[in-house]
Amino acid sequence: MTEFMAYLESRISEGKEEIVTLEADSRKDDAIFARIRTNIYDVCRTVSLALTDRPGAGSDAVRAQLDRFRTEWRTALEKAKQHDEFRAVAVEETKLAALEDIIAHFPEVTKA
What is the DSSP letter of 37? Predict the structure, then answer.
């Protein structure tokens, strides 16, 4: 789990640097989406820390929570598409892309 947390920390740090760069280049919209991605990494780090500290929880609880996020955000994406809310679609797609990256790295580091 230590490697997974280090991965999340690195993505958060990279995201913060990207936001600063984009804002300095007056790329406000890109900075907004970088902030959304960075927030997802931060939320997953916070949740993972809380769940691994809980007695009897551990990595299975983290995996279950990541799956719940995926389900909830896919539902929100579908709802946004149904209502032609293009901004909400972009936000939900950005959240899901970051989450899929997190999930892709989760099993790799917990196998060791």
Answer: H
